[in-house]
């Protein structure tokens, strides 16, 4: 404290005795929440001198010495409306009023009326009771300052304050936001909730619109239940308010300037939203229920996995709606949606996220039970993955699949507590109060647009039927379903309310029901806001129907390539590089001049530069993608003096495509799903996800199985995502050797993806360019190298890049007399160079070595051409580093059998079958490696 000030004002202070206790209590309330005290008090506290090093970042701890300070400061004229300083008892009561207000802001949601069924057994929160704060009946009639509550600075009877608090925080809305540290965000929410006492004030037209949404939701389910009894539809009944909620979100977003909304959700209510929000024709859905489908290639998918696109007219213009296709792995669609949104925002150059908005719809058990939710929340504010916030809706039917007890599915009070990790506000709302639902829907859109952060709506409802319509829920939830059978539907409750308040006539309610049923019978779109799409945001037409043989020109004038090389090695003199990085850049200067052959990192970077010069986008993410896990890429150069970065790839032309290289969060599943979503919305460029080690991709197996390998077969969704998976046996153990090549090959069918194992810098250059230049979009899986990044034999010339093309098969490179060859070895990847060096060392001239650079789709024609001069050979060998039950052997040997002469035999050279991908001992690794190479080359 400032002792001089204290001494100067000691005699003039009125703040002594009980008054100082009052000030101290108010000060401590201010430290918890500055908005909990009146504005004039806040000015006083804001201007207090810091104590013991306290600052805005490190707040001062609450302590009783504050009363000493106030004894030294004359405040009598600055404490207007805060209670009379001459009445210590009343002053103390005033502080308790502020504490009561704060208690409702913090814990009012725990006593809110959230459960439509009234089954929740929740203990009363003592802090919300005026008696807890020592208020008596006489106090209830006294007037107190409301601090920042409601309109702020008002004087009201305590009974009216309590009534207002209960209405705002303990009604149909339970607001959790006091965990947010940003004062502006908390104040914003308070200013939206408190002046209206948590109530919406809608006109008759809006109320009718809400009722129409409920009518459609209920009418759709009843119609399906009657027409297709027992068929799975994952009914929305009980959570009907989701339909008017979604409609209000779209209206609000469109009015604010949003042009696209991407939605991700699982099964519950999906068919209802498809028809009643996105505008899918009911006749099409009924045909799906009846087992009809249009002739098309692929397997198709069940109706509650299907996506859809449409346009929805709002006062602010048309909004393009896209419901993402998704599998039964529930929450995995969330990062896919976010990735698609980011791609759309990038294309529109939308930096604030306003023009494209994501909505993800969750189940109550899934949001808290599946780790991908945490991973996606964690990405929400990171540089490479943020989208200006998401609206996350939980359809909380209080059961979660078939579990009968919340204690079995989570360890927290609410299923939404996971959102607190990113300080997202959470609004619990009773689904039987559709006006409260609409109010929160609008508030959520406004919050998201204002603060560019996630916001969560917990729609507390119930599930009228079992998990699916063939399930019997009363077997595990007898009490809940006894109550549900007697509980009126949300439409009935709201219609009765509107009739009672003369907002709508009873005959009009009946008319709405009949009109909607007639519309379903007719089979046409039932969404009056639906509009045909004038143009699709993403144009896939250049890539539809194109296969692997789609023609393209892989060559490039060498002068152009030379110019790109020069640009890539140009670094500002002021940008001081780390010594090892400077050495790599110096080597690249020599490569650009032609004094050294090109290594892997430089050829790869030249591929990106050539794509960018064609004005196409490049996006690369991975846990070390800027420098490369193995210190080889160095596309992002860090200044050793000030930490700034320089990216040569952003400086290759005056007009070029954009490039983003982002070191990602430490996750595989969410990041790969994000990049899949990005690539499905950005077909023209190159989108790459790189694993730190290829082995780590197994953490994203769901993404690979459900999206990458089967998305086209199930949903007709093309995707050109490239995956770089470092793969190779260098004695680094079971988790740093194998990218699980066998798993990808097992998933290969119907030309669904490419699996390549490039072995030279020229090959990686042409492979990456081919992925963009060729008008065909399917995933590319690359077993990329580790030790080959600096292998003296794994080099290429600038001419090979400019004049060559990707070779699916690379034949024998040494000058062998083919007539004397009596064994041909097939292989892929790093082991080729070990075979080559050993053969040269042993002067073996009777064994030819062929590299298979693309394992799928298998290049039969190229293989036939490569084997043309070895038709006399009867001894063929497949050599691999991986154990026999892994790698390419089991999945690819039928291709080799079909290529070799009919009288020839095919044998295996490699490690024995193993449960682990690799051994963990360097000496054993070396022994095994030497053995497999010797076996392939017929050495003892």
UniProtKB/TrEMBL annotation:
A GO CC term assigned to this protein in UniProt: cytosol
GO BP: any one term: tricarboxylic acid cycle
Alphabetized InterPro entries for the sequence: 2-oxogl_dehyd_N (IPR032106), 2oxoglutarate_DH_E1 (IPR011603), DH_E1 (IPR001017), KGD_C_sf (IPR042179), ODO-1/KGD_C (IPR031717), THDP-binding (IPR029061), Transketolase-like_Pyr-bd (IPR005475)
Superkingdom, taxonomy of origin: Bacteria
Molecular-function GO term, any one: oxoglutarate dehydrogenase (succinyl-transferring) activity
Keyword presence, Oxidoreductase: yes
Keywords for the protein's UniProt record, in alphabetical order: Oxidoreductase, Thiamine pyrophosphate
Residues annotated as transmembrane: none
Enzyme kind, highest EC tier: oxidoreductase
Cofactor(s) essential for the protein: thiamine diphosphate
Coiled coil segments of this chain: none
Pfam families: 2-oxogl_dehyd_N (PF16078), E1_dh (PF00676), OxoGdeHyase_C (PF16870), Transket_pyr (PF02779)
EC number(s) reported in the record: 1.2.4.2
Record domain Transketolase-like pyrimidine-binding: where: 598-791
Xref: Gene3D superfamilies: 3.40.50.12470, 3.40.50.970, Multifunctional 2-oxoglutarate metabolism enzyme, C-terminal domain, TPP helical domain
Protein role: E1 component of the 2-oxoglutarate dehydrogenase (OGDH) complex which catalyzes the decarboxylation of 2-oxoglutarate, the first step in the conversion of 2-oxoglutarate to succinyl-CoA and CO(2).
Similarity-based family: Belongs to the alpha-ketoglutarate dehydrogenase family.
Name this polypeptide is given: 2-oxoglutarate dehydrogenase E1 component
């Amino acid at each position: 404290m400032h002792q001089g000030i204290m001494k100067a004002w000691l005699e003039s202070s009125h703040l002594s005795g009980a008054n100082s206790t009052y000030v101290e209590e108010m000060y401590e309330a201010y430290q918890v929440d500055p908005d909990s005290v009146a504005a004039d008090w806040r000015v006083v506290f804001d201007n207090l001198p810091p104590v013991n090093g306290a600052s805005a970042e490190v707040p001062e701890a609450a302590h009783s010495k504050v009363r000493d300070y106030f004894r030294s400061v004359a405040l009598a004229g600055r404490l207007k409306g805060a209670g009379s300083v001459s009445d210590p008892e009343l002053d103390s009561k005033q502080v308790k009023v502020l504490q009561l207000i704060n208690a409702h802001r913090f814990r009012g949601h725990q006593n809110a009326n959230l459960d439509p069924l009234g089954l929740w057994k929740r203990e009363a929160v003592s802090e919300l009771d005026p008696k807890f704060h020592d208020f008596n009946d006489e106090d209830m009639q006294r007037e107190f300052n409301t601090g920042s509550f409601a309109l702020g600075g008002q004087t009201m009877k305590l009974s009216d304050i309590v009534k207002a608090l209960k209405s705002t925080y303990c009604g149909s809305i339970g607001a959790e936001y006091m965990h947010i540290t940003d004062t502006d965000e908390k104040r914003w929410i308070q200013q939206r909730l408190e002046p209206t006492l948590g109530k919406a004030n809608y006109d008759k037209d809006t109320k009718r619109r809400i009722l129409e949404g409920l009518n459609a939701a209920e009418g759709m389910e009843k119609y399906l239940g009657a027409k297709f009894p027992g068929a799975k539809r994952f009914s929305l009944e009980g959570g009907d308010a989701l339909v008017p909620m979604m409609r209000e979100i779209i209206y609000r977003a469109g009015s604010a300037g949003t042009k696209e909304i991407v939605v991700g959700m699982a099964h519950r209510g999906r068919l209802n939203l498809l028809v009643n929000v996105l505008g899918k024709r009911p006749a099409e859905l009924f045909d799906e229920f009846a087992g009809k489908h249009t002739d098309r290639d692929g397997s198709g998918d069940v109706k509650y996995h299907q996506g859809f696109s449409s346009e929805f007219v709002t006062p602010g213009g048309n909004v393009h709606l896209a419901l993402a296709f998704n599998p039964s792995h529930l929450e995995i669609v969330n990062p896919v949606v976010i990735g698609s949104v980011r791609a759309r925002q990038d294309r529109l150059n939308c930096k604030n996220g306003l023009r494209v908005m994501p909505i993800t719809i969750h189940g109550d058990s899934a949001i808290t039970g599946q780790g991908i939710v945490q991973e996606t929340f964690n990405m929400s504010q990171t540089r490479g993955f943020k989208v200006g916030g998401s609206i996350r809706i939980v359809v909380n039917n209080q059961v979660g699949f078939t579990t009968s007890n919340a204690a079995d599915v989570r360890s927290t009070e609410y299923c939404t507590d996971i959102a607190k990790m990113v300080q997202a506000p959470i609004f619990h709302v009773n689904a039987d109060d559709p006006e409260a639902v609409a109010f929160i829907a609008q508030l959520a859109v406004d919050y998201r647009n204002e603060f560019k952060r996630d916001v969560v709506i917990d729609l507390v409802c119930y599930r009228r039927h079992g998990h699916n319509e063939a399930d019997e829920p009363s077997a595990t939830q007898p009490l809940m379903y006894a109550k549900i059978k007697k509980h009126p539907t949300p439409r009935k409750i709201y219609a009765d309310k509107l009739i009672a308040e003369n907002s709508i006539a009873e005959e009009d309610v009946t008319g709405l029901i009949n009109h909607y049923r007639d519309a379903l019978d007719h089979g046409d779109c039932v969404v009056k806001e639906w509009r045909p799409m004038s143009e699709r945001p993403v144009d896939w037409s250049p890539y539809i129907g194109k296969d692997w043989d789609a023609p393209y020109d892989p060559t490039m004038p060498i002068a152009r390539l030379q110019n790109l090389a020069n640009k890539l090695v140009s670094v500002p003199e002021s940008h001081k590089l780390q010594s090892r990085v400077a050495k790599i850049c110096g080597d690249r200067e020599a490569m650009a001049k032609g004094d050294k052959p090109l290594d892997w990192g430089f050829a790869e970077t030249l591929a990106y530069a050539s794509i960018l010069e064609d004005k196409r986008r490049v996006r690369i993410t991975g846990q070390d993608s800027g420098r490369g896990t193995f210190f080889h890429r160095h596309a992002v150069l860090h200044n050793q003096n000030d930490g700034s970065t320089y990216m040569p790839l952003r400086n290759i032309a005056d007009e070029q495509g954009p490039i983003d290289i982002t070191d990602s969060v430490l996750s595989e599943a969410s990041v790969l799903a994000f990049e899949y979503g990005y690539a499905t919305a950005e077909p023209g460029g190159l989108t790459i996800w790189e694993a730190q080690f290829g082995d780590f991709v197994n953490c994203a197996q769901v993404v690979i199985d459900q999206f990458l390998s089967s998305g086209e077969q199930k949903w007709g969704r093309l995707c050109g995502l490239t995956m770089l998976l470092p793969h190779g046996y260098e004695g680094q153990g079971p988790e740093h050797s194998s990218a699980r090549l066998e798993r990808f090959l097992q998933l290969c069918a119907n030309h669904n993806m490419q699996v390549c194992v490039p072995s030279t810098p020229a090959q990686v250059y042409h492979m990456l360019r081919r992925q963009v230049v060729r008008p065909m979009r399917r995933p590319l899986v690359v077993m990329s190298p580790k030790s080959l990044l600096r292998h003296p034999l794994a080099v290429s010339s600038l001419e090979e890049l400019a004049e060559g093309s990707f070779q699916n098969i690379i034949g024998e490179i040494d000058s062998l007399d083919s007539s004397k060859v009596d064994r041909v070895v097939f292989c892929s990847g790093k082991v080729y160079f070990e075979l080559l060096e050993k053969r040269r060392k042993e002067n073996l001239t009777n064994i030819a070595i062929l590299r298979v650079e693309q394992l799928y789709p298998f290049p039969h024609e190229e293989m036939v051409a490569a084997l043309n001069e070895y038709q006399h050979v009867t001894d063929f060998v497949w050599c691999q580093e991986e154990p026999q039950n892994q790698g390419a052997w089991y999945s690819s040997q039928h291709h080799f059998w079909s290529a070799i002469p009919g009288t020839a035999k095919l044998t295996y050279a490699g490690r024995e079958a193993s449960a682990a991908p690799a051994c963990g001992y360097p000496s054993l690794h070396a022994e095994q490696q030497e053995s497999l190479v010797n076996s392939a080359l017929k050495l003892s």
